[in-house]
Amino acid sequence: MSLHIVRVVLDAPIDRSFDYRYQPSDGDEGMPQVGQLVAVPFGRRSVVGLVVSTGSSTDVPPEKLKDIAHCYHNIPSFDKAWLDLCRFAASYYHRALGEVALNVLPKIIRQNKQKSIEKALGALDRMPKGKTAISVGKPVLNASQQQAANTIINATGFSAFLLYGVTGSGKTEVYLRAVAEKLSRSPDAQVLLMVPEINLTPQLEERVHSRFPEENIALLHSGLSEGQRLRNWLAAMTGTARIILGTRLSVMVPAPNLSLIVVDEEHDPSYKQQEGLRYSARDLAVWRANYLKIPIVLGSATPSLESWRHVQMGRYQQMELPERAMENVSHPEVSLIDTSSEPVVDGLTQPLVAAIQKRLGKNEISLLFLNRRGFAPVISCNACGWMSTCHRCSAYMVYHKTGRLLRCHHCGLARIIPKCCPDCGNLDLQALGQGTQRIEENIRHLFPEARVQRIDADSTSRKGALQQAFDSIYRGETDIVIGTQMIAKGHDFQNLTLVGVLDPDTALFSHDYRAGERLFAQLMQVAGRAGRNAMKADANPAQVMIQTRYPKHPLYQAMCQRRYDAYIHELMEERKMAGFPPFGYQALLMAEAKDINKAMAFLQVAKSLLAKHHGITVSDAIPMAVMRVANVERAQLLVESVSRPLLQSALSDWLPQLKAQKTQVRWSIEIDPLSI
Ligand code: ADP
Ligand code: ZN
Ligand code: ZN
């Protein structure tokens, strides 16, 4: 009798596959195929495995060969394209295939909850399939939009487009036009639309839904219940949903007939997963488009330097939308308030206060952007210099007025603010610097009549609170909004004519070489909130005011002239000189231990193991910028090369050696780290 061998990978950080025997039995649906899920015995447990190949021989001796427990015939099998995507992600990020593939599956599938799966599949069968792609309520595109849309639509094979245009320039309309075209050309076609943040999904979903009322949309983000996640995943996987809309995790969803991918705000750091498999969803999306030979559109007002470089090298095609799309809507005017000459009282300068004043009573909204929540970033003792440090982290505890608490934003530790200095007993403790709570207090004091809304992680921690706050602004019940980067993206407030930016300078002196790029993107985004809709004739012109000590800095100068290209040019030169991305490739080895010396010692050994590799530069091991978090001390080692293949091959050689080290240090590797 011939042997039926099924080779599977498991959800484990072991880079190998396991052989099992399949024994046909009565009523059985047949031999499991490649891409199918099976339950197999592993040690004493039964675990889920993914079939990667089948055959008739194995190296496993007969007495050790175990049978598969059963095959999940009810779940459609994964296609080769999806398996190859997982294979690529595993090899590029140096993970095991099983770890990658099984981890991206909905929990209900991984746990093989048969009943739930059958119910979900049954519901899909009853879903009407939109095969007509009726698109309703579409505006007439302007010339640059039309040209961009045509170029995308007419592209054959793999093409990557960088759609470069400020907020409101009509990028989304271009995406929707390309989507409409793709869906109408083939009854099976699917499209994937990605946004960086979960908060941005409802708006886009609504817009897509009203444009394509006949289509099923599979929404995928981390805020779904397990049941919803399963249903939407299966809808994409079976082709029932032709439009897939989601955050970074949606890049790994199986979609048999994917024919267009859109990555909106492609520069956004949220596309990078910061734990586990630290993948870049944007980069995987480009890989996927290339593999499938389909177009991909990367949209942004402030493209990443990586994408910009691809354009320079002729790999991506840039298309520009130079103006705001709606009539009577122009770009806001950007001005700088020099805080070295203009006094700052309680975080605000006189010109900014006057500008807010001018808008009150006219039903115009002012928005103040400060990327620091809490009341004050630190409190200190005037007498002895004590500061509110966290005893578990190398960081200050932030003063929060609500509950009179000191909170550590790194480890979450909270304690009641001391009545007097813990070191010298002095009663006069001082709150240093400004957070959003303090600005709110100052604004309420300055403008007692104004309706003020603060939006940050603290004010919106309750479920639904964020939506409530936005709704109240949409209804015109707010005069002044104060917020962190939560308000910077996507929201389209009527009658918002003033944006004030408070204290953005710290990013200019950050240890992080990408801080400038990120600040610029944030400022462009928050500036984009101003004057999004056509104004009444007597309204104030849309204005952005930035309070800074460094008005001559090229970043702010570029902001004023709305010349992102000028600033990106400067950044490119800097990166080139330093050999940083996109001119070099990096991997970061991170080590954690109770004692920093142990972490450092591990990294030094790691460094010595890399010594023989050519074309690789290894920096010295250094403690991380915030060295200690929750009593764990952390250090890092940066590995660089001007060649991606050289870096990859060095890592393939090196990481197994590291795994073989006996150490108590916890370590992990990150490929293409966003911050070092
Ligand atoms: P972006 O995605 O670049 O921020 P959107 O596509 O959301 O821009 O367009 C901004 C606003 O302009 C939206 O309200 C949109 O409906 C409108 N709009 C876009 N293109 C046109 C057009 N060609 N004619 C009229 N309105 C348009
Ligand atoms: Zn003191
Ligand atoms: Zn802490």
DSSP strand (E) fraction? Answer: 15-25%
Q: Taking strands numbered 1, 2, ... along the chain, how are they ordered across the largest sheet?
A: 8-9-7-10-11-6-12
- Backbone structural class: alpha/beta
Radius of gyration: 27 Å
Characterize the largest beta sheet: strand count, sense, and whether it forms a barrel.
Answer: 7 strands, parallel
The total beta strand count reads: 28
Enumerate the distinct ligands. adenosine-5'-diphosphate, zinc ion
Give average pLDDT, whole number: 92
Sequence stretches where pLDDT stays below 50 over 5 or more residues = none
Distance between the termini: 58 Å
The fourth-level CATH homologous superfamily of the largest domain is P-loop containing nucleotide triphosphate hydrolases
CATH architecture of the largest domain: 3-Layer(aba) Sandwich
For the record, the count of structural domains works out to 4
Tally the helices: 18
Q: Assign a percent range to the helix content.
A: 25-40%
CATH class of the largest domain: Alpha Beta
Morphology call: globular
In CATH, the topology of the largest domain is named: Rossmann fold
